[in-house]
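cron nightly-structures :: item 1 of 1
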Amino acid sequence: MIFEPILAFFLIRHLRKTLQTFSPNSVWDKVLIQIMYGTAALFALQFVLHIGNFTIWIWHLLLISLCVAAYKKQEFSRARNMFLATMPFAFLIIVSEISKNFSDDFFTAIKKYLDYAYPVAITWAITMLIISGRQRKALEKEQRIRLAEEERNKIVSARKAELEVLVAERTAELTQQKEELEHALLDLKATQTQLIQREKMASLGELTAGIAHEIQNPLNFVNNFSEVSDELIDEMKTELQTGNWQLATEIANDVKQNLEKILHHGKRADAIVKGMLQHSRTSTGQKEPTDINALADEYLQLSYHGLRAKDKSFNAILQTNFDTNIEKINIVPQDIGRVLLNLFNNAFYAVSERRKVEDAIYEPTVSVYTKRSLSVGEPVSTSREGRGEVEIHVCDNGKGIPQKIVDKIFQPFFTTKPAGEGTGLGLSLSYDIIKAHGGEIKVETKEGEGTEFVITLPVTGI
């Protein structure tokens, strides 16, 4: 009779443990606590009041109720192995108690069978408890893994939400930065356009100064010959009035020669003005046959006189050596003219800066020469209008360029001139123009001795 309360208490405790492990906060937990405390109280009362004959049926009913609940309630399904282990032993106890109260003879008759059955039931219970314990541990491990996985999933979900917020914030930030960069790019392009225009206007100003100096000479000739011709016409009228036809004819011939000279110098002035207008207007980008020797010589003179217009004391030796075998080549004359003007301006600036330091012993010299070279594999007999390359060499004996900045001179906005004297776009634009023509521009320099720029342009058939 003592085994049933202990067994009932053990089963209730196991049910609670199972519920707490797999079904936390179940309403059954409170019911089982009450039954467990009631079982303990009833167990104590049966020894104090000696009411074992009465309580035996309560223990029978409790065990049967627990077994039924374990097999009917889904929440207790994980504890069924424990009831399966103890059911044979509980069944033997109930049969033994009922047979005692039913008939002593019947109990005596089955007692020997019960004695054999108890060890079997105990062995069965121990075996099943071991198996149940392992299964319970496996289930508890599985539960821990599942809970850990759920916890990880929660952490991952929380982290994912945080990352989504961060990504949204970062996306908004990047979008704002992109818009700011786009605005900055537009401003930069506008500024670059202004700087390019400024560079163009600066070169135009230097060119205009040179043109003004150049155009003064033919204008002086025109004025002088016009005055002389006016005097000759007065003399011719006098001779005609006196009847000296021979002398009048000679004077008329002199007037005609003067008019021819006036026309020649007028055309020269007209050519200079046209060159200035051609340089100042926006390039059409259309290539046309151009005499590269004449273009180089023209811009050399214009650049030199432009500097002379700003500094009357400046003088330099101009050297030219043009290859007469070069025929007209297809280029955009306005663009190549800007390149040459920029190189000449830089050359004159370099020699003028060196002259400030070595005025007594130094002779500023700027030279330009051209030559035509054959392409690799081109036979010597190839027509001059065929393939090949034209080289334009612009040299000066100025200060030279330090080796540490040679690689930077073609970068936009890089300049060695003092602030306000250069935009740093001249060589950059020149580089782009030459590349657009399919050529290349190189520089060779030695600090303290001078600099040489070499422009190479492809020759195409005219």
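cron nightly-structures :: done
The radius of gyration is 57 Å.
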